[in-house]
Every structure is written in structure tokens, then in C-alpha cells.
Request: fold
Amino acid sequence: MTDSPYVPRWATIRHIRRETPSVKRLELELDNGQALGHQSGQFVEAGILGLGEAPFSVSSSPRRTDSFDLVIRSVGTVSEKLHGLKTGDRIGIRGPFGHGFELARFRNRDVLVVASEMGLATLRSLVHELLEERLLYGRLMVLVSAPTPEQLLFKDELAEWTNRRDIDFYVTVDRALDREWSGHIGVVTTLFQQLQFDPKQTVTAISGPPVMYKYALLELLGRGVAPASIFLTMERRMRCGVGKCGHCQINNVYVCQRGPVLSYADAGKLEEAFV
Ligand SMILES: Cc1cc2nc3c(=O)[nH]c(=O)nc-3n(C[C@H](O)[C@H](O)[C@H](O)COP(=O)(O)OP(=O)(O)OC[C@H]3O[C@@H](n4cnc5c(N)ncnc54)[C@H](O)[C@@H]3O)c2cc1C
Ligand code: FES
Reply:
């Protein structure tokens, strides 16, 4: 990082890939040649001069040091503008910010990753990192969902995960026409019906729309997974990223600093976290 967390580093877009009609993956390189230096689960503020900034998860593995990926759904001012950029264009990057996944707490455990919709943009870095050090972890279970087949992110990687023997991979969509999908249909938590795991040995990472957390937590706690072994990514409107502006506050916690990855043992104590 530069000395001041408020000063962006410039990054150049090296590659753009359309993931879905409303989502693009940007591969970026910092112009100063540095590695971004992130942990899985951390985020950056991506900014356009004169327009503004918005927070995005870093979607590539920390071990990839020459470039990094942001996966951006076009929903508003900054994200729409980012969708309009071309290869060779530059954007400002502040961060990485916050706490990511503490992988020391995943070692030698079975790992269950639950990613719904844009949650996979956030958890992809974690899955990549686990796969890169595969022998350090026990069983790896990955559950992924999207509203429709067209809205599934990283389709090429999902196909690869389906064929790997070292991942128990399950994918579902909320709805689909017969001609476009022959797989499971239902929200991500319906995949739990297919899954047997040892709750005492399993650590979980969850990311997705807020409504999903409620049902995933019911399932996990109901099966006996300890709150301290459940890690969630909390998305709040973030501005400064460094605990100064208060935009991301939940109860007495600045999510930009203590999160975005929090254990349920911590997040569950915050009354405003799941409203
Ligand atoms: C830690 C973190 C990680 C994230 N990671 C990702 C990621 O990897 N990929 C991703 O695509 N997104 C991610 N997000 C979400 C992303 O930051 C938001 O979608 C962000 O708001 C986009 O900025 P924008 O300027 O494009 O949209 P905005 O202009 O802020 O608009 C966002 C939404 O708010 C609505 N809105 C805007 N202004 C108002 C208003 N005044 N009143 C009512 N509604 C309004 C818009 O209609 C739109 O639906 C992340 C967020 C956080 C906090
Ligand atoms: S984003 Fe400003 S305090 Fe968290």
C-alpha cells in the first residue's frame, strides 16, 4: 500500500471477460509493478476520477501476485462506469482493506464453502487459495448457486471443479428452462440435503445475499457446526475503508476494519447484523 490509505494506486485493465449479462471480470495490474498484497476475503475501493469509488472483493488468489481480478455487477454509478472501460484504461485502487479469512483456522479441517450469486465473486479467491495448498486441508465441499444458469459466474471454472476429485462440488439454480439446465434446481440451502459432513471437523465460509445467511445458518447450527467455525462476509455501504467515516458501522463495529469476514461467534452478537 502507499503511505496514505486515502491515496489510490493506479491500475491498468489487462483483460476483460463478460461473466453474465450484468457482470464483468476485470483483470488488473498495478502500474507500480507491486503485488496488491491482499488476503482472500479482503476488498478494495475502486475509483474513477471525478466520479467516485465503490468497494469490490478481490476475486483472485493472493498467490497470484502479478495481477488481480475484480468481478463487478453493474448496478449504479461506479460499477456502470467500470463496465464501460476498455483494456488499457486505468482505475484508482485503494486498499486492500479489512480482515479476510484466517486460513490458519481452516488448516487440517474439512472446509465447506457456500456461495450464492455474487458471493462466489468474493469466495473465489478463497477456493483458489485452498486448491493451491490442497494438502493442508481436509475435505473441500463447495456449494454454488445463481438465480438462473445464465447468471452463474466463472462457468469454465465450475466445469473444472465438477471434474476434480479433490472437491465435492454442488451447483444449483433457482429456476431454469428444461432446455438450458439438467442439474439441481432450488436455492443454495437445498443442496444441504445432498451433503453429509462432520460438524465438529468442519469450518465454513458463506457469502451471498443477506436472506441466504438466515437459512444457511439455521442449517449449519442445526447440524452442530460451532459459531466460531462459521465465517461470513458482511457487506455494508463502505466509503473510507479505514474506520473513519462510520458508513459501515453495525452496532459498535466498523465492518471495513473488523470484517468483511466475521465469524458467526462475533457477528451473531451484533443485533443489527442480520436485519
Ligand atoms: C466488502 C464489499 C465487497 C463487495 N464486493 C463486490 C463485488 O465483488 N462485486 C460487486 O459487483 N459488488 C460488490 N460489492 C457491492 C458494491 O460495492 C455495490 O454494489 C456498490 O454500491 C456499487 O457501487 P455503484 O456506485 O456502482 O452503485 P450505487 O450508485 O452505489 O448504487 C447501488 C445500488 O443502490 C441504489 N441506490 C443508489 N443511490 C440510491 C439512493 N439515493 N436511494 C436508494 N437507492 C440508491 C442503486 O439503484 C443500486 O441498486 C461489495 C460491497 C462490499 C461492502
Ligand atoms: S467505511 Fe468508513 S468507517 Fe468503515
